[in-house]
């Protein structure tokens, strides 16, 4: 039986049981598709959620039916008080996970185990050190790749997030899939999405169809299995016959999956967004600090949620740069 109260339900009947919390606007990498070249204006420290505020606000969501929490950022492991957030959250009746670039993950293996984290999403867009430097502006490939491998060896489930950019890393699609032959790894190709300041243009997009065509041409159509999708899926999943791992495609641009959306986002400065592409947001932190109830605010925000990509349901509106300049940069939303 669902414990969800009506505050998490939108007008389309979608239950928002999956809370993504951004812990910081800062990052130790500079991925060009995420962090604008000119940087971002950071919130004053006083406006950022403290560790206990993160936990207390998360509790309100859990009391109303959230059953999964993802910690993200910026780079969530940059927070010096990461463990102070992780452990209390792990006491809540939810699945707890995180998305990380893995650079600092070796410091937290024991904390993650103790908190019962079973799987993590790790972002890695290339298997080539020089390309890693080009996309992230930091010479940290071996650290990131080594830590992703350690996570697997330590028994964590790992989803490897790969943002594909045409002419940059689409020549590595097969290499990434081959990683799944002997390792229980889930590679997820993500279509490059437009956000403020990331110089998105359609010509850089590698679509779901292009990925599948490349895969079928290399492995053979009959070797590609389509896996059953769960409810609230965001990736369409596949496996090559005989391979241990699998791969998926997150086709937010060419084929969005909004029907089953169950996500709500809390930014590091305590605002909620009802969609990744929403041009508006509502601050929860200030009312929370003033001891005002935040449930009615959450409810009102979800009731305004649009059916598809914050109302950009056709390609024309989604591809208009002016729409995305009204949104935040990805680094400050929390992907
Ligand atoms: N720093 C952590 C990391 O990189 O995993 C967590 C935050 S990052 C914003 C979360 C995810 O968003 C990453 O997997 C990243 O690849 C993805 N992302 C960022 N900008 C994107 C874009 N423009 N299009 C598609 N995915 C994007
Ligand atoms: Fe940092 Fe992650 Fe954005 Fe890269 S994708 S700049 S690692 S927050």
Could you characterize the architecture of this molecule?
This protein has 335 residues and is α/β, with parallel strands linked by helices. It has a single domain (18-333), classed as Aldolase class I (TIM Barrel), CATH 3.20.20. Helix content is 28%, strand content 17%. A twelve-stranded mixed sheet has the order 7-8-9-6-5-4-3-2-1-10-11-12. α1 packs parallel to α2. It is globular, with a radius of gyration of 19 Å. The two termini are 30 Å apart.
Write the layout of secondary structure elements.
Elements lengths: L17 E5 L28 H13 L4 E5 L9 H9 L4 E6 L8 H6 L4 E5 L5 H8 L4 H13 L3 E8 L8 H6 L6 E7 L16 H12 L4 E3 L9 E5 L5 E5 L12 E4 L4 E3 L8 E2 L1 H5 L5 H9 L11 H4 L2 H5 L4 H4 L2
Parallel strand pairs: 1-2, 1-10, 2-3, 3-4, 4-5, 5-6, 6-9
Antiparallel strand pairs: 7-8, 8-9, 10-11, 11-12
Helix pairs in contact: 1-2
This protein binds S-adenosylmethionine (SAM) and iron/sulfur cluster (SF4).
The site of iron/sulfur cluster (SF4) has 12 residues, from loops.
């Amino acid at each position: 039986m669902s414990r969800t109260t009506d505050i998490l339900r939108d007008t389309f009947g979608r239950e928002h049981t999956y809370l993504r919390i951004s812990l910081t606007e800062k990052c130790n990498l500079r991925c060009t598709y995420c962090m604008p070249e000119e940087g971002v204006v950071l919130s004053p420290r006083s406006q950022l959620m403290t560790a206990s505020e993160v936990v207390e606000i998360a509790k309100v969501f859990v009391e109303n039916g959230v059953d999964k929490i993802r910690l993200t950022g910026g780079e969530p492991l940059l927070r010096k008080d990461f463990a102070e957030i992780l452990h209390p959250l792990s006491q809540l009746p939810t699945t707890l996970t995180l998305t990380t670039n893995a650079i600092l993950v070796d410091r937290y293996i024991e904390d993650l185990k103790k908190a019962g984290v079973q799987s993590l999403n790790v972002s890695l867009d290339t298997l080539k050190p020089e390309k890693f430097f080009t996309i992230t502006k930091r010479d940290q490939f071996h650290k990131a790749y080594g830590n992703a491998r350690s996570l697997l060896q330590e028994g964590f489930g790992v989803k490897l997030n790969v943002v594909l950019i045409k002419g940059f890393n689409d020549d590595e699609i097969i290499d990434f899939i081959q990683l799944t032959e002997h390792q229980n790894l889930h590679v997820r190709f993500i279509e490059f999405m437009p956000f403020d300041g990331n110089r998105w243009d359609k010509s850089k997009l590698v679509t779901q169809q292009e990925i599948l065509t490349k895969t079928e041409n290399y492995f053979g159509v009959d070797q590609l299995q389509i896996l059953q999708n769960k409810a609230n899926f965001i990736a369409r999943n596949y496996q090559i016959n005989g391979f241990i791992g699998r791969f998926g495609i997150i086709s937010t641009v060419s084929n969005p999956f909004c029907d089953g959306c169950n996500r709500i986002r809390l930014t590091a400065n305590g605002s909620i967004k009802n969609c990744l592409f929403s041009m508006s947001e509502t601050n929860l932190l200030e009312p929370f600090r003033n001891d005002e109830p935040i449930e009615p605010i959450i409810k009102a925000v979800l009731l305004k949620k649009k059916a598809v990509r914050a109302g950009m349901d056709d390609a024309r509106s989604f591809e208009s740069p002016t729409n995305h300049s009204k949104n935040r940069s990805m680094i400050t939303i929390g992907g």
